[in-house]
C-alpha cells in the first residue's frame, strides 16, 4: 500500500515512460484530481490505496492527449508544491528565538545585544529609505541651468559634501573656512548605524564563543530548565534529575586533583584576580562573564566617543543641550550639526574656462538624522547606567563567598533541606568547595531564566548528590571539625546516609537521588 505522496511520484514517472506508444482505448474521458487520477469510466480505479498494477492498467486505457496534458499538470503541481514546502521550511527556521539568541544571560545583556541592535537597525532602515527612496538633497540652481545641470549639481553636492554657514553670517571668501564648516557624515549614516549595531552585538558573540570551553552547555541547561517549567510533574522531575546528574559530573570532573606549587599559585591568583580564570579552578564562567559585562560598559562609553568623531561634535553633551533648550523655550532646538540648509561649491569646465558656482541646498534627511541621534543619545545614556549597575551587582554576587553561601542556603531552605545546624554548616562547604563560583553562577542563570521553584528543586537534587558522594579525600566531618563545629559523621558503618539533627540527636534517613 502506498501513501499519497508515493502514489503521485510513481504516477508521474509511469506516465512519462509510457509516452505516446500506448494504443488508445474506448474510454471517453478521464479527469485528474489532485493526488488521484479518476477517469469517468467505471473501469478507472479511484482509490488512492490501490495496487501498482491497477494504476498502470487504468493509465494504459486512457487516451494519449489526456495523458500528456495530465502529466504536465501533475508535474507543474508537484514542482510548485515542492517550492512552497521549501520556502516554508526556510522561513520556519527564522524565528524570534534565532534572533534573540540563547538564554544564557540576563535581561540587561539582552537590552544591549538585542533591543539596542534592533533599534539601531530600524534607524538604519529609516535613514536608508530617506536616501534611496526620496531625494535626500535639493539645490537651488541658477536659472540658466537645464535639467541635466540641476541633476548634476544635486549628485555632486551629495557626494562632495556641503558646508554650513548661518543665514545671518556672510559667506567667507577663504576656501579653507568652507572646508572647516563641511558636513561630511550624512552619506554614511546608515553604515555607521550598522557598525554601531555590530559593536553592541559583539560582546554577546564573544560570550557564546568562549563559554562553551567551560565543559558544559550553559545555554542548553537554561533552555531545558525554562522549558520543563510548563510540563507535568513526573516529566519535570525526571528531566531535573538528568540535568542535576550532568551538572554534578561537570562539577566533579572540572577541578584540580593534583596538588602542586603551580596549581596553588594559580589558585591564589584566581582568588585575587578573577581575570586569571581557569576551568579547573572554578572561575572560568565567572571570569568570562564579568569580562563580557565589562565589554558592554566599555562599548556604551566608547560609542559616545565614536559619535564625537563621526559627527564632529560633542555628542556626550548633545542630550543635555536638547533638554536645557526645551526647558527654556518649550520647543525643539535646531542644531548646527544637523542643518536643514547648507551651501555647496563646485566648478564647471566650459572649453578653456573654469567657472565656480555656489548653490544653496536643503537636506531633508537631516530631519530624520536629528531625531534619530537624539533618541540614540537618550537610549545610550539609559543603557550605560544599567550596564554599570549590572556589572557592580554581578561583581558583588560572584566575588564574595558570603553571597554564594546566602544564595545557596536561601534555596535549600525553600526546598526544606536545612534541617539542622549540621546542614547549615555543611552548606558553606557545599557552596564554596563543591559548587564554587562557576556552579553558583550557573544556578543563578537558571534562576534568572526560569523560576525559583525550578532552581530550588535543582539545587535540592545537587545537595542530595553531594551528601551521597563526597568528592575529595577530606571527609565532611573533618571539615566541620576544622571549623570548630560539634558534628557527627554523615555516614555510618553500613554506608547508609543519615543527617544528624543536632537539636534532638536523632538520625533521620536521607533520601537518595533515585528515591526523590
From TrEMBL:
Keyword tRNA-binding: no
Transmembrane annotation, as ranges: 185-210, 283-306, 377-400
Domain of life: Eukaryota
Subcellular localization(s) per the UniProt record: Cell membrane
Keywords: Cell membrane, Ion channel, Ion transport, Membrane, Transmembrane, Transmembrane helix, Transport
Location, primary (coarse class): membrane
InterPro entries the UniProt entry points to: Innexin
Summary of the function given for this chain in its UniProt record: Structural component of the gap junctions.
Family per record: Belongs to the pannexin family.
Name of this chain's protein: Innexin
Protein species of origin: Dreissena polymorpha (Zebra mussel)
Taxonomic lineage: Eukaryota, Metazoa, Spiralia, Lophotrochozoa, Mollusca
Gene expressing this chain: inx
Amino acid at each position: 500500500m502506498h501513501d499519497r505522496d508515493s502514489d503521485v511520484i510513481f504516477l508521474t514517472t509511469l506516465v512519462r515512460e509510457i509516452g505516446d506508444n500506448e494504443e488508445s482505448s474506448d474510454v471517453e474521458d478521464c479527469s485528474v484530481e489532485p493526488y488521484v487520477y479518476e477517469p469517468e469510466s467505471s473501469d478507472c480505479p479511484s482509490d488512492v490505496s490501490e495496487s501498482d498494477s491497477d494504476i498502470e492498467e487504468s493509465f494504459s486505457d486512457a487516451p494519449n492527449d489526456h495523458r500528456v496534458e495530465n502529466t504536465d499538470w501533475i508535474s507543474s503541481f508537484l514542482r510548485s508544491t515542492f517550492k512552497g514546502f521549501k520556502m516554508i521550511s526556510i522561513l520556519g527556521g527564522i524565528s524570534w528565538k534565532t534572533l534573540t539568541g540563547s538564554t544564557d544571560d540576563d535581561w540587561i545583556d539582552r537590552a544591549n545585544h538585542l533591543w539596542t541592535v534592533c533599534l539601531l537597525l530600524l534607524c538604519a532602515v529609516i535613514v536608508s529609505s530617506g536616501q534611496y527612496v526620496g531625494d535626500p538633497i535639493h539645490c537651488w540652481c541658477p536659472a540658466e541651468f537645464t535639467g541635466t545641470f540641476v541633476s548634476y549639481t544635486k549628485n555632486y553636492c551629495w557626494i562632495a559634501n556641503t558646508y554650513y554657514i548661518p543665514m545671518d553670517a556672510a559667506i567667507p571668501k577663504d576656501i579653507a573656512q568652507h572646508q572647516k564648516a563641511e558636513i561630511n557624515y550624512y552619506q554614511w549614516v546608515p553604515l555607521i548605524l550598522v557598525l554601531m549595531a555590530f559593536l553592541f552585538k559583539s560582546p554577546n558573540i564573544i560570550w557564546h564563543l568562549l563559554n562553551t570551553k567551560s565543559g558544559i552547555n550553559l545555554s542548553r541547561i537554561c533552555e531545558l530548565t525554562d522549558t520543563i517549567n510548563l510540563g507535568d510533574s513526573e516529566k519535570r522531575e525526571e528531566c531535573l534529575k538528568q540535568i542535576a546528574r550532568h551538572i554534578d559530573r561537570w562539577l566533579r570532573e572540572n577541578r584540580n586533583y593534583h596538588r602542586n606549587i603551580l596549581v596553588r599559585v594559580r589558585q591564589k591568583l584566581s582568588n585575587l584576580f578573577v581575570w586569571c580564570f581557569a576551568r579547573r579552578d572554578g572561575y572560568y564562567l565567572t571570569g568570562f562573564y564579568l569580562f563580557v559585562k565589562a565589554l558592554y560598559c566599555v562599548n556604551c562609553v566608547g560609542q559616545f566617543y565614536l559619535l564625537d568623531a563621526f559627527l564632529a561634535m560633542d555628542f556626550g553633551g548633545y542630550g543635555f543641550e536638547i533638554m536645557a533648550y526645551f526647558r527654556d523655550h518649550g520647543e525643539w532646538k535646531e542644531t548646527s550639526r544637523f542643518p536643514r540648509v547648507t551651501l555647496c561649491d563646485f566648478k564647471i569646465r566650459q572649453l578653456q574656462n573654469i567657472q565656480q558656482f555656489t548653490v544653496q541646498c536643503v537636506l531633508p534627511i537631516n530631519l530624520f538624522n536629528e531625531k534619530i541621534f537624539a533618541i540614540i543619545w537618550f537610549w545610550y545614556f539609559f543603557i550605560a547606567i544599567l550596564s554599570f549597575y549590572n556589572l557592580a551587582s554581578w561583581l558583588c554576587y560572584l566575588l564574595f563567598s558570603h553571597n554564594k553561601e546566602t544564595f545557596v542556603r536561601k534555596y535549600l531552605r525553600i526546598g526544606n533541606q536545612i534541617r539542622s545546624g549540621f546542614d547549615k554548616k555543611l552548606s558553606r562547604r557545599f557552596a564554596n568547595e563543591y559548587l564554587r563560583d562557576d556552579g553558583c553562577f550557573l544556578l543563578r542563570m537558571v534562576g534568572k531564566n526560569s523560576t525559583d521553584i525550578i532552581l530550588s528543586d535543582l539545587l535540592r537534587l545537587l545537595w542530595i548528590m553531594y551528601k551521597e558522594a563526597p568528592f575529595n579525600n577530606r571527609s565532611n566531618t573533618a571539615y566541620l571539625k576544622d571549623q570548630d563545629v560539634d558534628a557527627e559523621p554523615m555516614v555510618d558503618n553500613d554506608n547508609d546516609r543519615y543527617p544528624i539533627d543536632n537539636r534532638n540527636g536523632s538520625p533521620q534517613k536521607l533520601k537518595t537521588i533515585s528515591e526523590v
